[in-house]
Structures are given as C-alpha cells and as structure tokens.
Amino acid sequence: MTATQGTSSIPSRDQRAGDGNRSSGRKGRTDGPGRRERSVGSVIKAYVALTKPRIIELLLITTIPTMFLAAGGFPSPWLILATVVGGYLAAGGANALNMYLDRDIDAQMKRTRNRPLVTGQISPRDGLIFGIVLSIVSTVWLGVLVNWVSAALALAAILLYVVFYTMILKRRTSQNIVWGGVAGCMPVLIGWSAVTGTVSWTAVLLFAVIFFWTPPHYWPLAEKFSKDYADAGVPMLPVVASRSKVSAQMVMHTVLMIVASLAIIPLGDTGWVYGVSAVLLGGWFGYLVVRYAHRVRKGASGKKLAPMKVFHASITYLSLLFIALAIDPFVTL
Q1: DSSP code for 241
Q2: According to the model, what pLDDT value does residue 328 have?
Q3: Which of 38, 208, 240, 268 would be 202's cystine partner, CB 3.0–4.6 Å?
Q4: Rounded to an integer, what distance in angstroms lies between the CA atom of residue 135 and that of residue 108?
C-alpha cells in the first residue's frame, strides 16, 4: 500500500513570498542577497529534515562502537568516516522515501504535519528523487570505499525499511514496528562487516539487542500519540490492543534484550567495562519497564503513566550501552 499521489495544497512560506513579489511588479528585486541566502538555507534545512537526522544519530551511535569492538581498538579513521558517511546517506535515503510514501498520513498527525512534504517546502517528486539518489549513492559509496558486503547490507536495510516496513507492514499489522524494526538493526552488521568483511555471532547478538529494544522503545511513543495513529489509520499496537497487553509485550521484549546483551559478554570477547555496564543498564531499564507495566495494571494513564519517560530512558540505555562497548577494548585490568 502506498500513499496517495499529488502535491500538497499548502503553499510554503517561500511560495507565498514569491507570489507577493510578483504581484508588486518588482520581480523579486527587493529580496536582496540576505533574503536569497535565507531562502537557500530553508531549502537545505528542509532536505536535511527529510533524512530524519535525529533518528540517524541513534543509528550512528551503534555503528561506531561496533566497529571498535570488531577491530579490538581503533579502526582506520578513514574507514570510520567512509562507513559513517555511507550509513548516513543510506539511512537518509530510506527516511526520505518513507516520508514520500507516508505523506498522506503525516498530514493527519500532529507529530508529523510539519514535515517538508506535508508543508510543501519540498514537492513529492523532488522528495522521491532525493530519496532514490541518496539510496543509490550510499550503496555505491560503501561498495567502493568500504566493501561490497557492507554495501549489500545497507541496500538491504533500505529495502527493509521502505518496502517491508513502510509499504507492507505499517498500515496492515499491529506488529509493524517489531518486524519493521529489523531495518534499524542493520547498522551494527554494516559496522562489523566494514571492519572484518563478514558478519560474526557477536554482530548477530548486537543485532538482537536492538531488535528486542525497538518495541519497548517505540511503543511508549505510540502510546503518547495513539490518537494521532488512530486518526491516520495506522494500527500501532497501543492503538488496537489494551495497555496491559502492550506493557506485557514490552516486558517480554526487554527481558530478551537484556539476555542478548549479556550473551555478548562470553561470546563477544568483551571486558569488564561492557560487562558491568550491560548488567547495570539492563537492570535499570528493566526496572523502568516493569514499573511501567505495574502502573498500567493499577489503571494509570496520561501523566501518571508517563510513557515518554520510558521512551527517553530507552534512548539513554542504548546510547550508554554502546558507549561502554566502544570503551571496552581500551580498558584492561
């Protein structure tokens, strides 16, 4: 299922300004260099927004530490740069295509109605071309400058996110984010293969950590914006299932996430920094999710339920875990 075609009927600020200049008969001469620079800057900002940079930050913070672990220290700075740039381009291309396909439902949701394809800052055609170009460039970039294993994994991540998640799962099943989240797990495989040219069991376990982390990370956000998703017809689990069912699945996925993170200790040849961090961080985040489930059972809602606290804590958990993973190769007893 794809989004409906056509351009937004909402004119952009630049379009409105342009209309005013034409009607005044000055042909834009009053704009001047400063106005022109602001206009170019707003366009650049809109295209950057298409790549969803805040999401990509989280992807990169999992890629670089994975490269450190795979190398047992510092990989080549050039390899890190080439992998990070290629990863950003791949994720950015996938995100742009996601916005192109979802622009109809984005227009119905408060959280997403200011995205560039909804406001008209960028036309759907230009957004589509931008996403395709980034996807192609990222694959070639990684293939030529890193290796073709990483390039193939990046291409797979793009297809998983755009086709498997956005086009097939998102509007059809409440388990959309569970299986669609596979795309968000791919950066660890890309980072590992960039260093080693292959994928090991350690990389697979890191993949599993992010896979099981995704539902307890995203479902609290979906709970917060459940009305938005309901209005847009997107069957996120918090929209179609009871809070008790959602919280029970969050607990289950969190337990599996912690198990996967601890399994890396003996199988991934990690030291005490990662080991201690995995235990403490897993215990902390696990407690927060269990507490959330307990509040659900007590009938809490809104501010008392505080789903966004779990959402933000999940980001902190993953960030600190992978920072510990990056530090671990450099610290020995």
Answers
A1: S
A2: 94
A3: 268
A4: 27
